[in-house]
Amino acid sequence: MAERSGDMAAMIANTKVFDQYKGEDIYEYSLTNKNGVTLSTLSWGANWYELLVPTKAGKKQNLLLNFPHTADYAEKNPYLCMSIGRTAGRIGGASFTINGKTYNVDVNESDYNLHGGFHGFNFYTWNGKIQDNHIIFNKKVTNELDNFPGNMDVTITYTLTDDDEVIIDYAAETDADSLFNPTNHAYWNLNAGDDPVTNHELYIHSSHRAALNSNKIPTGELAPVLNTPYDFSKNAPLGKAIAALQSIPEKGLDDVFIIDDHDPAKPVAELRNPDNGISVTIFSERNAIVSYTANGWDDSQKFIDKTGQPQVAIALESQTAPNAVSDLKFGDISIEPGEIKHYYTKYKFGY
Ligand code: G6D
């Protein structure tokens, strides 16, 4: 059902059933702006399904990795372009203390909690609706659902503007002291064809990354990136960095970049394809960006129009540094009753 959305006369809105998963209708909500840029999302995991830009060849190009079926997301790669929360990243030992009380949450990878555990934001459907140029998802995330303290009313709003920007607003209120550190796990590939992202260029406004232990849990130390393969403080060829990282077990990026103090009007990161001029520029007030280059992936993942392979895409996840859970030096991810916590990330597209 395509209709002009509200007073955004140039914005075209569409809501349709995408497919079914475990007997439940999964909905696709999309908006197209006056320039022909389309934002599509799914009710499963408040997922970012497509970002389509018009190309000189006259076709539209999707800049995100995506799957044809909800089951692929749920069973093959549960984080792909999903909304992530209550807490992005890894919580060592899957436990944390608030006001002197220790809470234990899902151990869903090794001996830690990754991305909120087995009942994170990406593992269930959200109530969605379109309002003007906003796609609004809501979910009551209860303590019974995910074992995190507090019952949280979470609203994730994707907004598409006629300036080719997508703004994601994460808002939450809770009935008990808890944690809130959401992100979106968008995986970008700015190639029209089936090439990996090794031809892309990357900028991250960061002079240090968080040192990680063998379990990828931040140690609390900072590692300078200057003149290392992790140095994206100036626009750098991603392929050269990946080649230089073949000597480490990860064979790519899977790192927490700590954002240097910055003017919020200036980007925290930019990914650019020099071969076609397509770019995504990220603005955020968060103090970290996790970058993961799909290391070790293979063709068992059947994406739409991309072959699963190492570096098939790069995730750039604006968030508060994961070790804020135990070290306020790395940020404050607390949320208390009586406040509405908002976090924003803006993506500006060039094509
Ligand atoms: C792997 O270590 C990476 C994470 O950074 C990523 O978020 C996840 O895959 C999807 O666990």
Span between termini: 28 Å
Average pLDDT for all residues = 96
Fraction of residues in β-strands: 35-45%
Strand order of the largest sheet: 12-13-14-15-29-25-24-19-22
CATH level-two architecture:
Distorted Sandwich
Q: Would you state the CATH class? A: Mainly Beta
Poorly predicted sequence stretches spanning 5 or more consecutive residues: none
Estimate percent helicity.
under 10%
Bound molecules: alpha-D-quinovopyranose
Shape type:
globular
- Output the structural class: mainly beta
| Helical stretch tally | 3
At the fold tier of CATH, the topology name is: Beta-galactosidase, Chain A, domain 5
How many domains make up the 3D coordinates? 1
How many E strands? 29
| Radius of gyration, taken over Cα atoms and rounded to an integer in Å | 19 Å
- Describe the largest sheet: 9 strands, antiparallel
Notes on the protein architecture:
By secondary structure, this protein is mainly β. The protein has a single domain (12-350), classed as Beta-galactosidase, Chain A, domain 5 (Distorted Sandwich), CATH 2.70.98.10. The chain has 3 helices and 29 strands. The protein has helices spanning 70-75, 143-146, 238-244, and strands at residues 2-5, 8-21, 24-32, 38-42, 47-54, 60-62, 83-84, 90-92, 95-98, 101-104, 112-114, 127-131, 134-141, 152-160, 165-174, 178-179, 183-184, 187-188, 201-204, 206-212, 218-224, 236-237, 254-259, 269-272, 279-284, 288-292, 314-319, 334-335, 341-350. β2 (8-21) and β3 (24-32) form a beta hairpin. The longest helix has 7 residues, at 238-244. The relative contact order is 0.16. It binds alpha-D-quinovopyranose.
